[in-house]
From TrEMBL:
InterPro entries noted in UniProt: Cell_wall_mannoprotein_1
Keywords: Signal
Lineage of the organism: Eukaryota, Fungi, Dikarya, Basidiomycota, Agaricomycotina
Name assigned to this protein: Hydrophobic surface binding protein
Species name: Mycena maculata
Gene3D superfamilies documented for this protein: 1.20.1280.140
Classification via Pfam families: HsbA (PF12296)
GO cellular component: extracellular region
Length: 178
């Protein structure tokens, strides 16, 4: 009976440990941002190569958008599982996001200017697919930004808000084009 009680206690402790939320680290957020950066670069390159890349290029844009959405969702999840950042970590993370900002804006502006090329594709509803991708990425980017702002030191919040406001403006332009 004693062994059974110890076994039950041990299993209960293991189960409680597995059920407890896992705290993420700043290093994990930095890794997520590196992944997001890589996905943004891929998307930007695919957009820059279109329409010369044709139908295959359009499909690559859609795939890249999906991969970026997944990376943003993972980053948001990890940020939400992280406690407040100190000044040094907040600065490091914001600098990493700031480094991606021009590429995101370039990709979105590029996509906005290529709406007629997207519409000319032999895929019914291609502009609608791009619009859907843009809306998803906008939502995921907003969630990522909001989560990051929550854990950012108060004096760095205006910088974070400016970065995400600039990105939101580019999304608005691209979404309006479609």
């Amino acid at each position: 009976m004693v062994r059974f009680s110890r076994l039950l206690l041990s299993l209960s402790l293991i189960a409680a440990g597995l059920a407890a939320p896992v705290k993420r680290t700043v290093a994990q957020i930095e890794s997520d941002i590196a992944t997001i950066s890589s996905q943004v670069t891929t998307l930007d390159n695919d957009i820059n190569g279109f329409p010369a890349s044709g139908l295959i290029g359009a499909l690559e844009i859609d795939i890249a958008a999906g991969n970026l959405a997944s990376a943003l969702k993972q980053g948001t999840s990890d940020i939400q599982a992280t406690s407040a950042l100190d000044e040094a970590d907040g600065t490091t993370i914001l600098n990493a996001v700031l480094a991606i900002e021009p590429t995101i804006i370039n990709a979105l502006n590029g996509l906005a200017t290529k709406e007629s090329s997207v519409a000319a594709l032999p895929i019914p509803g291609a502009p609608g697919l791009v619009l859907s991708d843009l809306q998803t990425l906008n939502s995921d980017t907003t969630a990522f930004g909001n989560a990051l702002i929550v854990i950012t030191p108060a004096d760095l919040v205006p910088t974070a808000q400016t970065i995400f406001a600039n990105i939101a403006a580019a999304f608005n332009t691209a979404i309006a084009a479609y």
